[in-house]
TrEMBL record:
Protein name: Putative cAMP phosphodiesterase
Keyword NAD: no
Record's keyword terms, sorted: Hydrolase, Iron, Metal-binding
Organism classification: Bacteria, Pseudomonadati, Pseudomonadota, Gammaproteobacteria, Enterobacterales
Domain Calcineurin-like phosphoesterase: 1-195
Superkingdom to which the source organism belongs: Bacteria
The keyword Hydrolase appears for this protein: yes
Length: 247
């Protein structure tokens, strides 16, 4: 099963509004063009968008997001990040004829169980998984123990070494990682760090996808970016492999 993992698109209120001199609409259009170009030859089964779809949570930005995602004619899961507003996401979602969005948290094929967890704390940049959500995740893992499990979320659980984002990462990442070890989860994917990064520990791979909008320069603690655009292509069949497509 091949999956595209998009994250941190940061669509602004209007098309002419930039984020640090980058136009997120241009980047998102470009990435959608690339997905359209490769999706049939690469046999993409699913797209996962792991949050910060918008920069300020505007309804118009979510409308644009849904239109573009639907145009790809591929099932997709949309997870929210600290820059998103669920209320406005839901308004746009009910307006659009969304044929391809998967409204449940997860997706299954014959050997993989793909699920997601909410890490957003309202009004905060850092992330936290509530006790209820952790318990729900544990239940889900136990019920699906005969599947390989992959979990997607917004905030990164392991520091990437860049203070500007590690200062607001997932606060209880250790609890999640311990739970995932216990249930032999194969893969954890996130965004938020605007950095491409992969860790292997025992049989688990933890991966931060590059952002669609821009990347932070490695190790910085103030605002300095690289204008690179990226996403990950994850192959869950056979040996798990990850291609970071960076432009
Ligand atoms: Fe974020």
């Amino acid at each position: 099963m091949k999956v595209i993992h998009l994250t941190d698109i940061h669509l602004t209120q209007s098309r002419d509004q930039k984020v640090f001199d980058v136009n997120p609409y241009d980047n998102f259009d470009f990435v959608c063009g690339e997905i359209a170009r490769i999706k049939d030859s690469t046999e993409i089964e699913l797209i996962i968008v792991s949050g910060d779809i918008t920069n300020e949570g505007d309804v118009e930005a979510y409308r644009y997001f849904f239109k573009k995602m639907e145009s790809l004619k591929t099932p997709y899961i949309a997870i929210l990040g600290n820059h998103d507003l669920k209320h406005n996401f839901d308004i746009a979602l009910t307006e659009e004829e969304s044929q391809y969005i998967i409204k449940s948290r997860g997706y299954k094929n014959k050997s993989w169980h793909i699920t997601s967890v909410d890490t957003v704390v309202e009004g905060e940049d850092f992330g936290f998984i509530s006790d209820n959500n952790l318990a729900e995740l544990a239940r889900e893992m136990a019920e699906n123990s005969h599947f390989n499990t992959a979990i997607f979320m917004h905030h990164h659980a392991i520091p990437v070494g860049t203070p500007i984002v590690d200062n607001c990462m997932l606060n209880n990442g250790k609890d999640l990682l311990d739970l995932c070890e216990k249930h032999q989860v194969k893969f954890i994917g996130s965004g938020h760090a605007h950095t491409a990064r992969i860790w292997h520990h025992n049989t688990m791979t933890t991966c931060v996808a590059p952002a669609v909008v821009f990347q932070w320069l490695p190790a910085i603690d103030s605002v300095k970016i690289s204008k690179g655009v990226g996403f990950n292509l994850i192959d869950f069949s056979g040996d798990l492999s990850i291609t970071s497509c960076i432009y």
